[in-house]
From TrEMBL:
Residues 2-232 form the NAD-dependent epimerase/dehydratase domain. CDD domains: TDH_SDR_e. InterPro entries: Epimerase_deHydtase (IPR001509), NAD(P)-bd_dom_sf (IPR036291), NAD(P)_epim/dehydratase (IPR051225). It comes from the Bacteria. Belongs to the NAD(P)-dependent epimerase/dehydratase family. This is NAD-dependent epimerase. Transmembrane segments: none annotated. GO terms for biological process: L-threonine catabolic process. Pfam families: Epimerase. GO terms for molecular function: L-threonine 3-dehydrogenase activity. It comes from Flavobacterium magnum.
Length: 313
């Protein structure tokens, strides 16, 4: 059985649906700090859990005979900068709780999401390699970088089967983003349909690695399904699909929404974006466990706008 912690969040919501469709509704226990998403809460087993409370997590694991945990609870980059101490506490200690359940052999397998935020201003920006300089400058990035080190440590020293992906910015029509620097790439589609214009909090030319949620979920499912011997990196895998700047999404949207306008009013998130890579080399994920993406900017834009327009009707 599977436990998803943070099941009501941006990734957790869609991951819960996908895992339930693959493994059966009753075999996937969704959990979050509150009942934040009625679809998730009403579509199968749901538990309220505080990811910072080891005893609560352990209790759920025992009660439901959990074998696999997906830890999706976290504070994202922009929110984390507003509350660094809490971000560090949540992002690190929830991970320790789950890793320690793995060490105690109470669970068999763990998924933990990392991010391209592990890279920093001194990292090579284009085609950022798997192994390179990593000096993250955000508290979110520092927590992901430290988390990766601990994942590898728990694997090497205690034999814990923990698997991880460095997600790029994720774009979904069905779930809102949760306080990240890449959120504009979701907001822009909503505003294109509602207002025909969008004021972007990042400036023109800010290229970042991005991915459609369908691809991100497929990657997550497939790294977890892969035979253990195919997983050769125990910190976290680089993962990529596309890279674009705000004006490039705007151009693509304009093919479907003629007259769409974008303006720029960069805020504190510009500095965070500037510290991250523009594109990512994910060849190890492709070689080791057969990763490949399906959506590029054009196909994602078409799919996003179709779904969002249908929702508005
Ligand atoms: C954020 N979307 O902006 C997240 C992320 C790629 C960055 O992990 O904080």
């Amino acid at each position: 059985k599977i436990l998803i912690i943070g099941a009501c969040g941006q990734i957790g919501t869609e991951l819960t649906q996908k895992l339930r469709s693959i493994y059966g509704t009753d075999n996937v226990i969704a959990s979050d700090i509150r009942k934040l998403n009625t679809d998730v809460v009403n579509s199968g087993p749901f538990e309220v859990v505080n990811a910072l409370d080891f005893n609560q997590i352990e209790h759920l694991v025992e009660k439901h005979h959990i074998e696999e945990v997906y830890l999706m609870a976290a504070l994202l980059s922009a929110t984390a900068e507003k509350n660094p101490a809490f971000a560090w506490d949540l992002n690190m200690n929830s991970l320790f709780h789950v890793l320690n359940l793995g060490k105690a052999k109470k669970i068999r397998k763990i998924f933990w999401p990392s991010s391209i935020a592990v890279f920093g201003p001194t990292t090579p920006k284009e085609n950022t390699p798997q192994y390179t300089i990593m000096e993250p400058s955000t508290v979110y990035g520092v927590s992901k970088q430290a988390g990766e080190r601990w994942c590898e440590y728990y694997h090497n020293i205690y034999g814990v089967d923990v698997r991880s992906i460095r997600y790029p910015g994720l774009i979904s029509w069905s779930t809102p983003p949760g306080g990240g620097t890449t959120d504009y790439a979701v907001d822009i589609y909503h505003k294109a349909l509602s207002d025909k214009k969008y004021e972007c909090f990042l400036k023109e030319g800010t290229r970042m690695p991005m991915m459609y949620m369908d691809d991100a979920i497929n990657a997550t499912v497939s790294i977890m399904k892969a035979p253990a011997e195919q997983i050769k990196i125990h910190s976290s895998y680089n993962l990529a699909a596309m890279s674009f700047a705000p004006e490039e999404v705007a151009d693509e949207i304009r093919k479907h929404v003629p007259g769409f306008e974008i303006t720029y009013a960069p805020d504190f998130r510009q500095k965070i974006a500037d510290s991250w890579p523009a594109s990512i080399d994910d060849s190890r994920a492709r070689e080791d466990w057969g990763w490949s993406h399906q959506f590029d900017l054009a196909s994602m834009t078409k799919d996003m706008l179709e779904h969002l327009a249908a929702d508005l009707k």
